[in-house]
Specification:
By secondary structure, the protein is an alpha/beta fold. The protein has one domain: TIM Barrel (Alpha-Beta Barrel), CATH 3.20.20.150. The protein is built from nine helices and ten strands. The strands form two sheets. It has an eight-stranded parallel beta barrel with strand order 1-2-3-4-5-6-7-10, surrounded by five helices. Strands 8-9 form a two-stranded antiparallel sheet. Helix 5 links the parallel strand 5 and strand 6. Helix 4 crosses helix 5 and helix 8 runs parallel beside helix 9. The longest helix has 18 residues. The radius of gyration is 18 Å and the shape is globular. The protein starts with 7 loop residues before the first strand and ends with a helix. The relative contact order is 0.14. The mean pLDDT is about 95.
Length: about 270
């Protein structure tokens, strides 16, 4: 039986691993990994994962099986991913509601057209992955900077359409909702309020960069801003038991400073409960 994932977690990154293993901060309750960093790798990678598993439950968050990509995923990769998920007793696996290229992976999370056709394709891919991996699949809403063509529906209607058609779960990225509010004029709180709490298995929160022209870029390389923390608190009042992950992927501060941020998230979660 896999361990319960509760409270606040952090992404397991090489730059943070030694401090996490040595300090074992009490406010960090679980860890998230990108499976692409571990599949097909042994030696130090295998040891790294085992050390992490000895401390905390592990959740996987994929970067390459984008649910809106027209190409089917390579069967060998899917088999390897299923093996990894079984080895760590994963309770779910998450992928992004976007597309990543056609014929080749472009190493970016590209926006989908918000149409019934795109929702139908993404829902079908989610169902296929769930069957192949034999674990729940959660879709993550993404930050976007432009939209490919006319919209047939709003972003939240598109997300809900995919969830309904797939009977899938959701990884709700609160920072991405805030980014899109500022870049596209959506109402972040109204967006959150329409998401069925029983569909959400995980929450992401991160920092972002504001360009001089006002465009916000989701970077995961800055501290979480106060307005995003406030949106998280609003979100957790609707779904207080959903685990929260702090994403930090660059521009790392001193480890104690990072854990202070985790502590702040834990306080918000405790108030919500």
């Amino acid at each position: 039986m896999s361990a319960l994932v509760r409270g606040v977690g952090i992404g397991l990154r090489w730059e943070l691993a030694d401090d996490l293993f040595r300090e074992r901060p009490a406010s960090v309750k679980w860890l998230e990994i990108h499976p692409e960093n571990y599949i097909g790798r042994a030696g130090v990678y295998e040891d790294h994962l085992e050390r992490a598993r000895a401390l905390h439950p592990i959740v996987t968050h994929g970067l390459t099986l984008c649910l809106g990509t027209p190409d089917r995923p390579e069967s060998e990769y899917v088999r390897s991913l299923r093996s990894l998920l079984r080895s760590i007793d994963a309770r779910w696996h998450s992928e992004h509601l976007c597309w990543g290229g056609a014929g080749a992976f472009l190493h970016d999370l590209l926006p989908l057209p918000q149409t019934i056709e795109a929702a139908t394709r993404a829902a079908a891919r989610l169902r296929e992955l769930r069957d192949a991996l034999e674990v729940e699949i959660a879709l993550e809403n993404v930050s976007t900077y432009a939209h490919p063509g006319p919209r047939a529906m709003s972003e939240i209607d598109f997300v809900l359409e995919v969830l309904d058609r797939s009977n899938g779960k959701m990884l709700l990225d609160v920072n991405n909702v805030w980014v899109n509010q500022n870049n596209h004029g959506i109402d972040a709180r109204a967006y959150v309020d329409r998401i069925p709490p029983d569909r959400v298995v995980q929450i992401h929160i991160a920092g972002h960069h504001v360009r001089p022209d006002g465009l916000i870029i989701d970077t995961h390389a800055e501290p979480v801003r106060a307005e995003v923390m406030a949106l998280l608190e609003h979100t957790l009042h609707r779904m207080p038991d959903v685990p929260v992950l702090l994403e930090r992927d660059g521009n790392y501060p001193p480890f104690a400073e990072l854990i202070t941020e985790v502590d702040a998230l834990a306080s918000i979660a405790e108030r919500a409960r």
